[in-house]
Amino acid sequence: MRHTVFRRLMADEFGEIRAEMIARDHVLSTLGGRTVDQALAAGSDPKEVWRAICDAFDVPWERR
User: Which residues, listed in sequence order, are joined to residue 35 by a DSSP beta bridge?
Assistant: First the structure.
């Protein structure tokens, strides 16, 4: 998954402003205690980051 696809999925699910806030501020233990932005900057696979977001925010299976 490309970063642009990841960002589109985030915006579609949470709205652009909330998606940016989540990516910047929400720390996920499944990402090693990092935020989405930190995990992506460190080279994490966007698909794995998306899965972590989906699990943390109970995104329905059909939108994962």
Answer: 27
Helix/strand/coil (H/E/C) assignment for every residue in 43-58: CCCHHHHHHHHHHHCC
Cross-strand partners of 27: 35
DSSP character at residue 61? G
pLDDT one-digit tens code per residue, 2-23: 999 999 999 999 999 999 999 9
Distance in angstroms (rounded) separating the CA atoms of residues 26 and 20: 10
| Spatial distance between the Cα atoms of 22 and 26, rounded to a whole number of angstroms | 5
- C-alpha closest to that of 36 among 58, 12, 10, 59: 10
- Tell me which H or E stretch contains 34: strand 34-35
